[in-house]
Specification:
The structure holds 2 protein chains of 2 kinds. Chain A is of the alpha/beta class. Chain A is 36% helix and 26% strand. Chain A has a 6-stranded mixed sheet, sandwiched between helices. In chain A, helix 3 packs across helix 4 (117-130), helix 4 (117-130) packs across helix 5 (146-158) and helix 5 (146-158) packs parallel to helix 6 (176-192). The longest helix of chain A is centred in the last third of the chain and has 17 residues, at 176-192. In chain B, helix 1 (3-16) crosses helix 12, helix 2 (18-56) runs antiparallel to helix 13 and helix 10 (280-323) runs parallel beside helix 13. Chain B has 14 helices and 12 strands. By secondary structure, chain B is α+β, with helices and mostly antiparallel strands. Classes of the chains: A alpha/beta, B alpha+beta. Chains A and B meet through helix 2 and helix 3 of A and helix 11 and helix 14 of B. Residues 13-14, 20, 22, 40, 42-48 of chain A line the site of adenosine-5'-triphosphate.
Chain lengths: 224, 430
């Protein structure tokens, strides 16, 4: 059984004259443990697809199944719970809370999940060790380098032991060597923890390291 | 997210933007301080007035004044047009109480006795051992059972044939006595001017005591009927009996233990005769009404300040939502529910309201300590057992609750917009 299954998903933005079809009948199936790259030109609909896969957005038509369960029209509370327990996110712009410490940033998903303070700390330190930043735990998130920031984001994405990590241009703001470091981290997680990796990228090197590449053009999946 | 974490996060966020938080709390503080202090003064003064009712006692006594007071008060606002003469409502005598009226009053159910008050203003009072003369404005003893705090001696005996006077505090010292108690039992002369001849005659009066000062009877000296009669007779000698008999007011004692309905019935009967009856409670009630009206105005100012402060809360939290848009979006993407984001922001508002009101009450409490010890000493020292400001716990709790409620309501606006943020839009937000 596939982990995520998308069937004939369409996403329209706007109405009337300004109506725009961002996704035009996308179907795909992703298995547990896979690493997937979503590639395509700017404005082709990559992020839109990722948002729908991550239940951050609703398709206009079509269905998504996660672990066989149709999640297209489920309650918001359930969506929140699923996002919190199943997914981890890494964004191009990091989105760390600058005034909080590195540790607090990593603990955030656990805090949202309602994990107690002590356990939160333990799990977050473990995640930081995994990205080799446990010595920076007390630093303000603002006072570390860009590469370190993205490693903190990876730690934050994996702290709740997710099934899937979504990464939208994770290396987009980094130079190539730090970018490679982040890539290595993500593929390590994919290999050693069996976390499914869904990466949106322009970078064909990164894409080629994935098990599978999904090419998007004008809101549709095309053959490479 | 756990409840305690929501609370902690709200607290951390408030501390992060310190100056904004402090300014908002300050605005709430001003409103709550005003309201607390005003209600404290109201409570303090009213409690004092209530105690005075008990002090003066004479619960079965009322003053009777000629005319319908409520009507004449209303009359000021009504037409100022000249009225046609009506012999039934004989003009001048309406302002006085005649022997006829007294006879009728005595027939009213429940009224036991009627004393008339005839106006006489003595020229002066003088001690036999001192040449200095002092002005005196005496008050007729109304009822035997008046409870007036005395510094020394006692009140004059109402029915005693000896002319007696209880002096207001201060005379003893002025007249050269070493203490208030030394003047008790001494004989004074009280002088009146005859209304016809202008001749000044001195009448002897025995000092029965010296009274304590209170807000109600401050500066009054009390004289008994015997002294009153002598003074009046001396002053009106030579006037026609008709005029002599006219009184400017009367005092009535009614059956002890008469209930409010019974008292009202007497008042209604008096009103039919064109007279107004007023118990001491009524008189104090009027003072209370004035006090309450003043407090109401001040409290309205406080409420206006609070409403302005609540706009401050809305503003502060909207700024905070704006600044934290991405953070909110991120937390929502990570599965934080709308309800908890709403709770986080409303808690911030509640904390602002709570601290603003608690600080307001705290400072109002300090103000109470200061005012009651310094200001009351300086200006109301002669009023023993008077505390200007008094707080009762229930009022304080209600103030905190109301301020917190207002803050909460103000907080719901920004909290709602935060909870409705779309995570994708929020994360795109630059
Ligand atoms: N909220 C929106 N309203 C209207 N149009 C939108 C909205 N969001 C995205 N679009 C449009 O949908 C299309 C797909 O957007 P999307 O963000 O998925 O592109 P992308 O492939 O991720 O591009 P990039 O590589 O530049 O990030 C674009 O043309 C974009 O302008
Ligand atoms: Mg994109």
């Amino acid at each position: 059984m596939s982990l995520i299954e998308v069937s004939n998903v369409k996403k329209l933005y706007g109405k009337g004259d300004s109506e725009f079809t961002a996704l035009n009948g996308v179907s795909l199936s992703i298995s547990q443990g896979e690493s997937i790259a979503i590639v395509g030109k700017s404005g082709s609909g990559k992020s839109t697809l990722m948002h729908i896969l991550a239940m951050l957005d609703q398709p206009t038509t079509g269905h998504i199944r996660i672990n066989g369960e149709d999640v297209t029209n489920i309650k918001e509370k359930k969506v929140n719970e699923m996002r919190n327990s199943l997914f981890g996110f890494v964004f191009q712009q990091f989105f760390l809370n600058a005034k909080d410490s590195v540790l607090e940033n990593v603990m955030l998903p656990l805090k949202i999940a309602g994990v107690s303070g002590k356990e939160r700390k333990l799990l977050a330190m473990e995640a930081l060790r995994e990205v080799e930043l446990d010595d920076k735990a007390k630093n303000k998130a603002n006072n570390i380098s860009g590469g370190q920031k993205q490693r903190v984001c990876v730690a934050r994405a994996l702290v709740n032991q997710p099934k899937i990590i979504f990464a939208d241009e994770p290396t987009g703001n980094l130079d190539s060597s730090t970018g490679t470091h982040i890539e290595n981290l993500l593929f390590d997680l994919n290999k050693s923890h069996g976390i499914t990796l869904i990466v949106v990228t322009h970078d064909y090197d990164l894409a080629s390291r994935c098990d599978r590449q999904i090419h998007i053009k004008d809101g549709m999946i095309v053959e490479a | 997210m756990k409840f305690t974490d929501i609370l902690k996060t709200a607290g951390v966020n408030l501390r992060r933007s310190k100056s904004r938080t402090i300014l908002t709390i300050l605005a709430i503080f001003i409103g709550s301080f005003t309201i607390t202090l005003t209600s404290g003064i109201n409570t303090g003064v009213n409690a004092y007035l209530d105690k005075q009712v008990q002090n003066v006692g004479a619960e079965n006594y009322m003053d009777v004044l000629p005319g319908d007071i409520s009507e004449s008060a209303g009359g000021i606002l009504e037409s100022s047009e000249p009225q046609e003469y009506d012999p039934e409502l004989d003009g001048a005598s309406m302002e006085t109480i005649s022997t006829d009226d007294v006879a009728k009053m005595e027939k009213i159910d429940g009224i036991e006795s009627v004393t008339v008050y005839q106006s006489v203003t003595p020229e002066y009072i003088q001690s036999e051992e001192n040449t200095k003369k002092y002005v005196l404005s005496p008050q007729n003893m109304a009822a035997e059972n008046m409870k007036i705090d005395m510094k020394a001696g006692r009140l004059p005996k109402l029915d005693s044939s000896t002319p007696e006077i209880a002096l207001a505090p201060g005379y003893a010292k002025l007249m050269g006595y070493r203490s208030e108690s030394e003047i008790v039992g001494k004989t004074m002369v009280v002088a009146v001017k005859n209304l016809v001849t202008g001749e000044i005659t001195e009448v002897d009066a025995k000092v029965s005591g010296v009274q304590d000062v209170s807000l109600i009877s401050r500066g009054r000296s009390w004289i008994n009927a015997s002294l009153q009669e002598r003074l009046y007779d001396t002053a009106t000698e030579g006037l026609p009996q008709e005029i002599k008999d006219r009184a400017f007011a009367a005092g009535v004692t009614f059956t002890k233990g008469l209930d409010a309905d019974g008292v009202q019935e007497i008042k209604d009967n008096l009103l039919k005769m064109g007279l107004t009856g007023m118990t001491i409670e009524d008189e104090i009630g009027m003072m209370k009404t004035v006090m309450t009206a003043i407090s109401a105005v001040l409290i309205i100012f406080g409420v206006i300040a609070l409403l302005a402060a609540s706009i401050g809360i809305v503003n502060t939290l909207f700024m905070s939502v704006q600044e934290r848009t991405r953070e909110i979006g991120l937390m929502k993407a990570m599965g934080l529910s709308r309800g908890k984001i709403f709770a986080q922001f409303t808690f911030e508002a509640i904390m602002l309201g709570f601290w603003g009101s608690v600080i307001g009450i705290g400072v109002a409490y300090l103000a109470k300590l200061f005012v009651n010890s310094v200001v009351v000493k300086a200006f109301f020292d002669e009023l023993p057992s008077f505390t200007l400001i008094n707080y009762d716990i229930l009022t304080l709790i209600v103030i905190i609750a109301v301020v917190v409620l207002i803050a909460f309501l103000a907080g719901t606006l920004p909290a709602r917009s935060a909870s409705r943020l779309d995570p994708i839009d929020a994360l795109k937000y630059e």
